[in-house]
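Cast an eye over this sequence plus tokens and explain the fold to me:
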Amino acid sequence: MTGHSLGGGIALLASLHRSSDPIPPRAVTFCSPSTYYTAKLLGMSDTTTKGDELPNDSLQMLRAVQIKPAHDPVSGTDAPVGAVMPLLCRAQAKRKCHTLVQTMCELIATCGDSGRGIKYRVRGEKCAEVYKITNR
């Protein structure tokens, strides 16, 4: 499951809700709110969670990846679950750090494109040109 912003939070909750499936779903989210305490308020339990501790080996920890750009106010809500990938945000207007377009360009700039030649564009400009991306 995947999602951006609220959709990402829902993907995290849905993956926890379906944790007893024979093949539990995984979640990868972008700029999403975290859901640890939200899940507790909704009565969703992670069988490896004890008390109010944030366990390192919880089921959701093993199945969720959250891409969290710096300066994004949404992904800073609630306590994080799963692996959190912090990401730079070089936008001059910090509100843009929440946009999926900005996040994708930052991912490409950080991780590279494996020599595929980025075609992704932001307002008519290629990410490679805006971020001076070199093929890795």
Q: What stands out?
A: The chain has five helices and six strands. The beta strands are 2-4, 27-30, 64-69, 83-87, 121-122, 125-126.
